[in-house]
Amino acid sequence: MSFRALRASKTDQGVSVALTHLEPNDLMAGDVTIAVEWSTVNYKDGLALAGQRIIQTFPLTPGIDLAGTVTDSSDARYAVGDKVLVNGWGLSQTHDGGYAELARVPGDWVVPVPAASSTRDAMAIGTAGYTAMLAILALEHAGVAPGQGDVLVTGANGGVGSIAIALLSGLGHRVVASTGRREEEAYLKALGASEIIDRAELSAPGGMIQKERWAGAVDSVGSHTLANVLAQTRYRGAVAACGLAQGIDLPASVAPFILRNITLAGIDSVNAPQAARLEAWRRLASDLDVGKLASTVTEIGLAAVPDAAAAILAGRIRGRTLVNVKA
User: Fold this and answer.
1) How distant, in Å, are the alpha carbons of 188, 279, 280, 290 from that of 286?
2) What is the DSSP string of 233-302?
3) What whole-number distance in Å separates Cα of residue 317 and Cα of residue 120?
4) Quick one: DSSP state of residue 113?
5) Rg from Cα positions in the chain
6) Is the dihedral of CA 187, 132, 112, 312 positive or negative?
């Protein structure tokens, strides 16, 4: 039986994306076949659909996230009927991703959906929330604890930022949110931010070491913003870097690391080992306020993904964009 898929093809003008029908024989190799129910739109998905060197083989089904029900499995860890999710790995790069009603993936990529969650819940969190949790685990590993000082979240209106705020505030941290959209102040404070600052305070070139402000930070912006965050981090503080919305460069110095003994932790959600993934999803199931999560979600159908992908690159998306693959 054929299934719908959003298919990306290479053209002379870049990447063309169209909704089409595929057959089960078109599925890529893997141990676990999944009837996909939900996916998401992330910044990386925006880059992929815009032809920004994410997709490495064509034609391909984009989508770095998926969740659904196992329909066939040769992997003893997963049985027909299991609720599962997949984040990252080769999805949307070298392997068909979540923007299709059916997917087949290697068993080592699969994570069980937490028992108390649905597949929709899992994708409301998605790569953005999973990345936010990996960042918070890194801050905890570096010794950042509630009561030590403010924790900054940059790119606060995005998916990573929104869920990081909800998680950090729920864990007892005083959260400062950096955003270029001051009209979203009520939204950010409802998630748990105690203070809102304009991203312009951080986005221009600054001194190599500046007044101490943060015990920790989650940064999804990079470039001058990350350089200033590092320069303003308090003694023995830590910063988790997980994005590059402003740029991939880092115009910083070693001064904060040597003079203040700070830690910069890089966060990779694509190839994280299974143990780290399971811990992140375990913590998300216990630490994330589902009411706050619901307030971050906008739901769309599969055909609306290209417009949402363009909007996320333009900075017009708030929170999480959840894709109902069956709609």
Assistant:
1) 21, 11, 10, 10
2) EEEEEEEEE---SSBS-----SHHHHHH--EEEE---SS--HHHHHHHHHHHHHHS-HHHHHHTEEEEEG
3) 19
4) P
5) 20
6) positive
Residue span(s) of the chain under CATH 3.40.50.720 come to 126-266
Q: What is the DSSP string of 67-81?
A: EEEEEEESSTT--TT
Q: Which two tokens stand for residue 138?
A: 């890194």
Q: Is 61 helix (H, G, I), strand (E, B) or coil?
A: coil
pLDDT in tens for each of the 327 residues of the chain?
899 999 999 988 889 999 999 999 999 999 999 999 999 999 999 999 999 989 999 999 999 999 999 999 999 999 999 999 999 999 999 999 999 999 999 999 999 999 989 999 999 999 999 999 999 999 999 999 999 999 999 999 999 999 999 999 999 999 999 999 989 999 999 999 999 999 999 999 999 999 999 999 999 999 999 999 999 999 999 999 999 999 999 999 999 999 999 999 999 999 999 999 999 999 999 999 999 999 999 999 999 999 999 999 998 999 999 999 999
Backbone angles phi, psi at 64, to 5 degrees: -85, 0
Say if domain 126-266 classifies as CATH 3.10.450.50: no
Phi and psi at residue 206, to the nearest 5°:
-140, 180
CA 26-32-36 angle, to 5 degrees, is 70
pTM above 0.90, yes or no: yes
Looking at domain 3-113+296-324, what is its CATH homologous superfamily?
A: Medium-chain alcohol dehydrogenases, catalytic domain (3.90.180.10)
Within the chain, which residue ranges are assigned CATH 3.90.180.10?
3-113+296-324
Q: Strand 233-241 relative to strand 214-219: parallel, antiparallel, unpaired?
A: parallel
